[in-house]
Design goal:
17 strands; globular; 311 residues; alpha+beta; seven-stranded mixed β-sheet
Length: 311
């Protein structure tokens, strides 16, 4: 039986969160009396039965998603308002937080019909620019290179895109942390021993960036898709039409759930609204020699940049 001694409040992902699981990554408390958007609860399976009909997979209903991480926990996400964490034999809070702040929050956003992009977002001259790409493309490494140049991180992994009252696409800040591979730490002269590995026997680390975090909603002005190519130099081109829609669909966090949640039409309409005012680009980097600072320089100095895009 789990004894709940304390509840924690946080402001992240554009949401007020009340949690029975401490989430130290989220260092922005909610003021007393504020409306709570999402509750995170620890549950005893002997009390609360969690519906799970696909072992080691996702159970999906119109307003309900559940999945199991063997030996760690069963997670369920309901109605865009509630996350339930049911610990299993080898429950570990640090590991559970990765799933709560990743997959669970991504599903919460989709259930609330807020677009979660998969990537990193950087604040540049008062506007947000999202860096998306497939696993291993170097999204977080490129974002870290921007941080090293003095720009600020808005989000890493899940990028919540909402709309203002004036229908301006906005990026909501998440929390001041990056996930970087050891080779990326080496690239920036950082000692991996100073950071917490995300999982045992892995060389990916949690890297706090509290002093380089932008903690306010900010207009989204551009989306850069980072891909690997056969050339040696960085190439950037603007994308349009169906290719822009492809970028948004392909890089939606847990986008494979959209069809099962009945959200494909919503996603198309939402993407259309975003693309009315947001430019999309493809950045092709060398597959053999990733030079993130060159990519930063090319992005900032392209004809779409300081003279037009970043002003």
């Amino acid at each position: 039986m789990i004894s709940i001694k304390k509840k924690y409040t946080y402001d992240a992902f554009g949401l007020n969160i009340l949690s029975e699981l401490p989430l130290p990554e989220l260092n922005r408390p909610v003021f007393p009396g504020n409306h709570i958007d999402v509750s995170i609860k620890l549950s005893d399976l002997s009390i609360d039965k969690i519906e799970l009909d696909q072992k080691n997979g996702f159970t999906v209903r119109s307003h309900y998603v559940a999945f199991e991480v063997p030996s760690l926990a069963i997670f369920s996400i309901k109605n865009g308002k509630e996350i339930i964490v049911a610990p299993l034999n080898d429950f570990d809070e640090a590991k559970a937080r990765l799933y709560v702040l990743g997959t669970c929050m991504g599903v919460i956003l989709m259930q609330q019909q807020t677009l979660p992009l998969h990537g990193s977002a950087i604040a540049i001259n008062g506007r947000a620019y999202a860096i998306v790409g497939n696993s291993g493309a170097g999204k977080s490494t490129l974002a870290s290179a921007f941080i090293q140049k003095g720009y600020k991180l808005i989000s890493d992994d899940v990028i919540p895109v909402t709309f203002s009252n004036e229908r301006i696409p906005m990026v909501q800040p998440t929390y001041p942390q990056q996930k970087l591979w050891e080779e990326s730490l080496n690239e920036f002269g950082l000692n991996a021993r100073k950071y917490q590995p995300l999982f045992e026997r892995e060389t990916k680390y949690s890297v706090p960036v509290k002093d380089s975090f932008y903690n306010q909603p900010i207009p989204l002005a551009g989306i850069f898709e980072l891909v690997k190519g056969s050339g040696e130099s960085v190439e950037i081109r603007q994308t349009n039409g169906l290719e822009s829609f492809r970028i948004l669909l392909h890089h939606t966090f847990r986008g494979s759930l959209l069809q099962r949640l009945g959200l494909k039409e919503w996603h198309f309409i939402y993407s259309s609204e975003i693309l009315k005012s947001v430019n999309t680009f493809q950045v092709t980097r060398s597959s053999s020699n990733f030079t993130p600072y060159e990519s930063v320089s090319k992005i900032l100095n392209t004809k779409y940049s300081e003279r037009r895009e970043f002003n």
